[in-house]
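A.,

Following up on our hallway conversation. Structure tokens first:
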């Protein structure tokens, strides 16, 4: 819903949370009063009374759940939060929130085209299942325990055989933690992406899984470590490739792609590092199938979760990296990310925990996706063709000293290679051009359209952000006084009429011109539940999504600081403390966060988790209970938050 959308009615907003007793933050039904509640298979319907005049939303208030304490609650996804809607006719409605899973990875689900398919299963470039033979007596297809970014997509002209009211849900799987023998498989397998065809019940809003389509990623050279995601304004799924592999093999970027080459192409040398670290886009067809294209012109960085502004051209991008930057891409054409201009932010005044940092942007270059992809796959460009990157000081003024991933480098671009450097060695080139490469793990990004504010998650405030640290560079103008492992949320004010550091106008009304901290976590001495960050505050925020309807910023955690990660709701108007909505299984990360204000009049909040039980400090009994709930830790859930009306009638004030 844009800033100019009509004020939602009770019809719009009850549909929001009505649906199944567990709706993705439910469905808020249509008209004014609730005349009944139908309970069947945990799918409660809110039946509205047409005799009562429709009312408009006044305020929406979440009531926090307590952090779970009992092992049984900590070993699973737990939800005991509530939502209260106050209407402008002085009535109110209250809902209990819950969680509904579509599936757990590793289970068989109905396959698009017929038969069954393993949810979260891995496939090679030929479309063949990749088999885990680490335990010779029990070979099985690899499947992920790490579902991540998701997009709930409604196509008005969708038509799927056997599905009455199709809605599509794109889900990507970041990696798999280990094989059956217990050895890490991080980065060794090609990331799958699935399109789920869901049948939306028009009366309840309930979503039922009907078909599962595995997207063929071979045309995009396979996908690698797909982490957070967002939905574009034109209803495509914007994926990510986190931790771009370092083509210079100095251990700066991330793990080697040799395992990817072996498992996807059948050849350890077939995966080229420069084919990864880009922005994939999944296009969903009206029949529930889909394709993927990879955009090579949006910078080769640690893409986590980008967000396209309402102009359909401007993209704000975080960078899940140490000595990472804030990046922006402006497409040449609306709804087309295949060509455009890449920028990096330079802070021109000091950003601290207490001060606002002013931003000017440096243009890194303009490119089309096809020309950069051709450099990689036709010209077979190598890192040493682009630049020199040394780990020892050459004592030569023609080199630029930079710091990446806490390590000093001395770099020099070769003649005529600036474009290749900008789009294939983006971290090095952005640092050379004076970008403020000082952030640590800047993750999810989202936007509050009405207020023209973007938000970025900082999983940690440490290393390159901390004044005096070895990775800190004074010229970056990002200088925090102390390490905060719990991280925080950074807010960027957006405006038109901005110009680059060199004075060139930027053709966008959605350009960040200053940043300030919105929320900051709090590190503590470890408590009795194993928390090293205050359990009543955010810790290591990762996924961010904003609801224009509810004026609420939703925050999912990726935190070893909270043994149970939480999903939070923060109202940007009341500015009250964030409210805990959901607790993931112990050791799991809260992922897949996606808030959609209206799909056929229903609003949904999607939520997954990954790697349950994966935390060494968990007590033995808690770890055992968690692993037992999720296939010995090999499986994870894909689902959504639901809302169940507390009472069958509206309570009058």
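Then the amino acids I'd put at each of the 653 positions:
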């Amino acid at each position: 819903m844009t800033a100019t959308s009509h004020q939602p009615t009770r019809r719009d907003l009850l549909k929001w949370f009505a649906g199944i007793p567990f709706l993705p933050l439910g469905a808020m039904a249509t008209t004014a009063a609730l005349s009944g509640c139908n309970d069947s298979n945990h799918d409660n319907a809110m039946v509205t009374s047409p005799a009562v005049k429709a009312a408009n939303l006044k305020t929406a208030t979440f009531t926090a759940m307590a952090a779970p304490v009992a092992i049984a609650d900590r070993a699973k996804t737990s939800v005991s939060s509530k939502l209260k809607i106050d209407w402008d006719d002085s009535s109110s409605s209250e809902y209990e929130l819950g969680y509904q899973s579509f599936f757990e990875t590793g289970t068989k689900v109905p396959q698009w085209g017929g038969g069954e398919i393993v949810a979260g299963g891995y496939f090679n470039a030929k479309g063949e299942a990749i088999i885990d033979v680490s335990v010779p007596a029990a070979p099985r297809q690899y499947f992920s325990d790490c579902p991540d970014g998701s997009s709930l997509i409604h196509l008005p002209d969708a038509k799927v055989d056997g599905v009455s009211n199709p809605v599509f849900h794109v889900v990507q799987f970041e990696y798999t933690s280990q094989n059956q023998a217990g050895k890490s498989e991080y980065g060794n397998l090609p990331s799958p992406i699935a399109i789920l065809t869901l049948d939306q019940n028009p009366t309840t809003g309930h979503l039922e899984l009907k078909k599962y389509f595995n997207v063929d990623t071979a045309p995009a050279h396979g996908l690698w470590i797909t982490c957070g995601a967002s939905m574009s304004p034109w209803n495509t799924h914007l994926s990510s490739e986190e931790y771009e592999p370092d083509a210079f093999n100095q251990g700066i970027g991330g793990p080697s792609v040799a395992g990817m080459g072996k498992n996807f192409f059948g050849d350890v040398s077939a995966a080229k590092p420069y084919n990864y670290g880009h922005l994939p886009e999944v296009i969903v067809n009206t029949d529930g199938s889909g394709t993927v294209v990879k955009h090579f012109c949006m910078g080769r960085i640690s893409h986590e979760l980008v967000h396209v502004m309402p102009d359909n051209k401007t993209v704000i991008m975080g960078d899940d990296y140490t000595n990472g930057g804030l990046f922006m891409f402006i497409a040449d054409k609306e709804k087309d990310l295949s060509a455009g201009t890449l920028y990096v932010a330079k802070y021109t005044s000091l950003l601290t925990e207490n001060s606002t940092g002013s931003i000017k942007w440096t243009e890194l270059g303009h490119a089309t996706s096809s020309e950069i992809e051709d450099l990689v796959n036709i010209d077979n460009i190598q890192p040493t063709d682009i630049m020199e990157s040394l780990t020892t000081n050459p004592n030569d003024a023609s080199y630029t000293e930079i710091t990446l991933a806490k390590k000093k480098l001395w770099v020099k671009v070769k003649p005529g290679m600036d474009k290749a450097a900008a789009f294939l060695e983006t971290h090095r080139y952005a640092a050379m051009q004076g970008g403020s490469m000082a952030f640590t793990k800047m993750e999810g990004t989202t936007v509050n359209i009405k207020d023209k504010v973007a938000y970025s998650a900082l999983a940690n405030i440490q290393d390159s952000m901390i004044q005096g640290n070895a990775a800190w560079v004074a010229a970056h103008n990002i200088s925090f006084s102390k390490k905060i492992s719990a991280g925080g949320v950074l807010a960027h004010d957006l405006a038109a009429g901005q110009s680059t550091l060199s004075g060139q106008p930027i053709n966008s009304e959605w350009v960040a011109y200053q940043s300030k901290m919105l929320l900051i976590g709090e590190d503590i001495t470890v408590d009795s539940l194993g928390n090293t960050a205050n359990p009543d505050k955010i810790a290591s925020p990762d996924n961010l999504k904003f609801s224009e309807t509810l004026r609420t910023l939703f925050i999912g955690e990726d935190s070893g600081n909270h043994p149970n990660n939480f999903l939070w709701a923060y109202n940007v108007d009341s500015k009250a403390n964030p409210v805990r909505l959901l607790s993931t299984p112990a050791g799991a990360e809260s992922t897949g966060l996606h808030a959609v204000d209206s799909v056929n009049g229903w609003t949904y909040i999607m939520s997954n988790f990954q790697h349950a039980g994966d935390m060494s400090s968990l007590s033995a009994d808690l770890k055992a209970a968690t692993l037992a709930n999720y296939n010995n830790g090999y499986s994870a859930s894909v689902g959504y938050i639901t809302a169940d009306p507390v009472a069958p009638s509206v309570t009058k004030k």
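Confidence is low (pLDDT under 50) at residues 1-53, 648-653. Curious whether your intuition agrees with the design.

B.
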